[in-house]
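Write out the bound-state structure for S-adenosylmethionine.
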Amino acid sequence: MSFDVAEVHFLTDNAPQITAATADLALSKKSMISDIAALRDTFGDQGRAVAELAGARRSVAGKLPQEWLLCHDSAQQTTPMAVSAERARRLKEALGEGVLVHDVTCSIGTEGHAVLDAGLHYLGSDIDMPRLLMAQFNLSLHPSSAASGGKPELLQADALVPATTGADVIIADPARRNNGRRITDPAQLLPPLPSLLETWSSTPIAVKCAPGVDFSGWQGLVSLASVDGGVKEACLYSPQLAQGETREAVVIRGDHLDCLNDLLEDGGGESLAREPGDFIIDPDGAIVRAGLVRHYAIREGLWMLDDRIAYLTGNRIPEGTSGFRFLEEVPLKKLKSALAALKAGSVEILVRGVDVDPDQLRKKLQLKGSAPFAVVVTRIGSRGVALICGPREFSSAATL
Ligand SMILES: C[S@@+](CC[C@H](N)C(=O)[O-])C[C@H]1O[C@@H](n2cnc3c(N)ncnc32)[C@H](O)[C@@H]1O
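---
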């Protein structure tokens, strides 16, 4: 759901009253009908829009400032602030101070906040007028707007028809959903990725894509970003925006940010596989998808269980992450009896490299004890194995 122009004007003009009227509403599935009825009493026909705003704000609590204007759809599409901050940092590092960043799919202005925070100049455009009006409101809350007394630089434009020249870099974030359906074909994104790249071919560009997109043909940098264990995006950067690296993982957990790239040592063709150490480590999805498992292993003093499978092992858990204390290796067929002997009551199951469904396996195990364990089901060489481990442990700096 979204807003029309009149609704955004109403929400903008009545922002303080709306914040006050919605602060104590439950806004749960159960209460939604009575909440909307109460809001209609106060705000008349605009009660629905007010309820949507309040629900969207609730959905991003702790992630975005609560005074921002946003609808359900734009809330779902918004970039995590730590990811846009890291992108702005990269643009500043690559292009220098004072450059102009044109965000051609600006939506509600999330990237704009990060760009302004980094001290860069920002121009936002979007094809959708209600989104632009929300961006105008949200960007006017940025300290730099308040300090200059100026209006944010925004315009309505199709990203495939360059409306301005002179930007030093383009940011684009094509929509990956249409009417609730996920779009996987880059040519079907809104706007389509190939047309976007053609339109801005003479300007450095950073384009956000779904993490699963086939980026093997991209000549520049592909940066995979994850937040608290979930891979959020693959951003394609033009070569001018990188320092020679072509793959990067940006791993954000709470306040902890880790960046690694393919300029790190990866051990060449040498095997990194050895016997399990004290801990089994499941590297972050951004590292796996960026193809940086070997680089990460070497940097952290870890090694692999099998060169072709993305599980690592070592005698410590890397800072800011989690791992599992290794207890024993058993053939898959013996897992049930081994866990019974340990009086296991619950088990976190990780599977990679073998065709095992964790939910079905959990049912088959019929655990009756009380102790928590983890099991890593994988392949080492030609053996399908189960590595029985203690429950997930966090390094001292981990914040999950
Ligand atoms: C995924 S959202 C962008 C989210 C934004 N980067 C953020 O972090 O909040 C995609 C945006 O692209 C806009 N859009 C879709 N087609 C467009 C086009 N041809 N030109 C400009 N904007 C377009 C949509 O209106 C929507 O606001």
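---
The radius of gyration is 24 Å.
The mean pLDDT is 94.
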